[in-house]
Amino acid sequence: MEGVRRALGRAEVSVIEVQQNMYDLRVAIGGADEEGQERRPESGNIPG
Question: Model's pTM, two decimal places?
């Protein structure tokens, strides 16, 4: 069971990283307001 929890935690971290990279890309190409109309995803409660 612990291995499943670790795998889910890693998957969650990966999804957060993808969301952050997508946001950065949208800002770079002008699809998001740099002043925060679309907020950068929070890394929040990443299991450690």
Answer: 0.59
Which of 37, 40, 47, 35 lies closest to 20, judged by CA?
A: 40
- Amino acid type, 3: G
Query: Encoding tokens for residue 4?
Result: 């499943």
Q: How far apart are CA 35 and CA 13, in angstroms?
A: 25
- CB-CB neighbours of 18 under 10 Å: 11
Phi and psi based region of residue 36 (left: phi greater than 0; alpha: psi -120 to 50; beta: remaining)? left
Please list the pLDDT of the chain residue by residue as tens digits (48 residues): 899 999 999 999 999 999 999 999 999 998 776 555 555 556 555 555
